Amino acid sequence: MHEIKDITIIGGGPTGIFASFYAGMRGATAQIVDTLPQLGGQLTALYPEKYIFDVAGFPKVLAKDLVHDLAEQAGQFKFESFLGQHVVDLVEEDGHFVLVTEADRFPTRSVLIAAGIGAFSPRRLPQQCADAWYGKGIFDNVADPEKFRGQKIVIIGGGDSAFDWCHQLRDRAAAVTLVHRSDKYRAHGATVAEVQAAVDAGKTVLLPFHELHDVLEVDGRLTGIVLRDVKTKETKTIEADAVLPMLGFISDIGPLANWGLNLEKNEIVVNSLMETGRPGIYAAGDITSYPGKLKLIATGFAEACTAVNQAFHWIYPEKKVNPGHSSNLAVFGQKDD
Ligand SMILES: Cc1cc2nc3c(=O)[nH]c(=O)nc-3n(C[C@H](O)[C@H](O)[C@H](O)COP(=O)(O)OP(=O)(O)OC[C@H]3O[C@@H](n4cnc5c(N)ncnc54)[C@H](O)[C@@H]3O)c2cc1C
Predict the structure, then answer these.
(1) CA-CA-CA-CA dihedral for 43, 46, 47, 48, to nearest 10
(2) CATH 3.50.50.60 spans which residues of the chain?
(3) DSSP alpha helix (H) spans, the chain
(4) Paired strand residues for 97
(5) Phi, psi angle pair for 193, to nearest 5°
(6) In CATH, what is the architecture of 5-120+250-332?
(7) How close is the Cα of 317 to the center of ligand 1, in Å?
(8) How far is Cα of residue 243 from the mean position of the Cα atoms in its chain?
(9) Superfamily of domain 124-247
(10) Strands 235-239 and 288-289, how do they pair?
(11) What's the CA-to-centroid distance between 246 and ligand 1, angstroms?
(12) Model pLDDT for residues 95-120, shown as the tens digit of each residue
């Protein structure tokens, strides 16, 4: 059992990290609990190497760099994050909430749900032969593209992640082959065109209508894979040091559905105060629904401010809802608090 905090934030995506900064700015104690092993939510898990162009103040910023800067900003205040912890339950005890994960219990005066599209995990390859190779030659998460420098890479998938990584790894890897079950690609047209140009220039191999059939090994090391043509059923072998299945993510809001909140299509309906209808529980970011809602990082930031201010005032009614301007706050060494 941890020390009780004012605000416990479910989700360490951009909304949750910014909320923890904002809580610190208000003088509230806060903590983040997230299922994933790293902070950043979708930015870290789905598109760390992509540029984002619509975050105010940044002409462009790599998703992973935005997460780094958000964490640095939040780190100005005592900021604890408990990662790899999936929130499975919410109970009320002794006049406060307790968020329960599979391994721990987090007592808290209020809850801010910034759970995005829910807890997500990469969709796995359906072929059983792949199971034993996850983490040892088959990787569904590219945390550091440098790890694949000089390697022969096979990417499996036909969506944005598959095409993006094909494009991103081409100059680092010794060879990149993109394999997809059909010739219909869900990726953005411009990225498909870029990869097609690389194929025409002989820098990338594109194999439509193929799927994984077997994994080849030498002394416990993955050395290649066998692919099967889904139309002719013929097989072919290609050398590989690493296989990257990029098959999208499965997301699930899971236990949040059972907390008596007003849900619409797996989103939490909130009012303009980011209240969920259950006193002491607020929501912000992609998980929320209201008329005109935009699922953007910028909107999540603004909603985080509202939710934290409301939660703080709810816990400490004598405290003002509106903190005033940060440029005047004593907490930042300014005069006029
Ligand atoms: C490919 C791609 C490109 C994008 N490009 C842009 C862009 O250019 N500009 C833009 O503004 N937006 C963009 N977006 C959307 C943007 O990423 C989202 O709006 C943003 O990530 C929402 O942030 P969030 O913090 O609300 O949720 P998320 O980023 O989804 O984070 C939620 C976190 O909650 C955690 N969580 C969920 N349930 C639980 C639980 N039960 N217990 C513990 N943890 C839990 C998850 O693990 C996750 O880490 C893009 C999205 C994608 C997929």
Answers:
(1) 60
(2) 5-120+250-332, 124-247
(3) 14-26, 42-45, 63-74, 160-169, 189-200, 297-315
(4) 92, 108
(5) -65, -40
(6) 3-Layer(bba) Sandwich (3.50)
(7) 31
(8) 22
(9) FAD/NAD(P)-binding domain (3.50.50.60)
(10) unpaired
(11) 18
(12) 999 999 999 999 999 999 999 999 88
Ligand 1 site residues (CB inside 6 A) read 10-16, 33-36, 41-43, 46-47, 52, 54, 86-87, 114-119, 160, 254, 285-286, 295-298, 300
Q: What is the pLDDT of residues 175-212, one digit of tens each?
A: 999 999 999 998 888 889 999 999 999 999 999 999 99
Rounded to whole angstroms, the Cα distance separating 317 from 337 reads 18
Identity of the amino acid at 9: I
Write out 274-324 in H/E/C secondary structure.
Answer: CECCCCCEEECHHHEECCCCCCCHHHHHHHHHHHHHHHHHHHCCCCCCCCC
Query: For 264, how many CA atoms within 13 A lie in the half-sphere containing its CB?
Result: 9
Q: Which residue has the tokens 């792949």?
A: 130
Atom of ligand 1 nearest to the CA of 161: 1
**CA atoms of 324 and 334, how far apart (whole Å):** 12
Q: pTM of the full predicted structure?
A: 0.83
d(CA 66, CA 51): 10
The residue ranges of the chain whose pLDDT is under 50 are none
CA angle 178, 180, 156 (to 5 degrees): 55
